[in-house]
Structure formats: structure tokens, C-alpha cells
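Researcher: For the annotation table, I need C-alpha cells for Osteoclastosis associated transmembrane protein 1. Please keep the output clean. Sequence:
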Amino acid sequence: MLVFLLYSNLEDIWTASECNRCVSLRHHSLTNDTLYFMETLNQSLSCFEKYQKQGNHSELCTECKATYRGLNELYSRMEKNHTLCIDIEDSMNMTRILWSKDFNCSFPRAETVPVIAVSSFMLFLPIIFYLSSFLHSEQKKRKLIHRE
């Protein structure tokens, strides 16, 4: 019974971790997607190591930006294609922590301009409303005064 329970728990961990997405059971090896991700991850980490030794994190951010962005895009594609397993997710989480927290690097967000435009419009909307309301009410008062 102990062996069955142990096997059952390991099978549950395997299933919950989506390991079948990264390991080809027929060939007893990693899938091509997983191998390509690991290669791209190693390129990014090598770049981090190279510039981390120099101690200049701003240079690291500029020089490693392309490899990190490529890794990030690959991860997003794999997420959409449902080819991620827990090992890839963990690797990407650790890489993102290195990039953002340890090296203090970031990407400018593309959504910034539309958010600022909509926010500005919403901010000025009450001002426009009250100004037009005031001007409209002044004209009605003038018309009422002139008629008498």
C-alpha cells in the first residue's frame, strides 16, 4: 500500500506540474520547445553574468535587453501554446526576478500613452461639463433679463 501511495503522489505531482509538456515520453528526452527555451535562457543568463561581473547594471540592462526580450517573447508564445511546465515557469520567474529586482532593469510600457490620454480626458471632462453648464446658464439669465 505504501508503494501505491508513493506512486500515486508522484503521479499527482507530475500531472500538476504539467511535466508531460516538457518531456517526450516516447523518446525519453526533452521536447524541442523545452530545449530551445533552455538554450535561450542560457544565452540570457550568460549575458547577465558577463555584465554583472563588471558591476555596471545600466550597461547590463542595455546590452542584455535583446536577449531578455527574446526570452520573454518565447515564454509568452509557449504560454499561449500551452507548452509550459513547472520547470520552465520557475526558470522564467527567477530570470524575471533577476532582471527587475536584482538588476533594476525594466521595459517602457507601450500602453503608457493611451492610458495618459484617456486619464487626461477623464480629468478634464468635469471641468468641461461645469464650464459649459455655467456658460449655458448665463445665456439663459441674460435672455430672461432682456425680455422684461
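Researcher: And a one-line annotation?
Model: Residues 41 and 55 are 21 Å apart (CA to CA).
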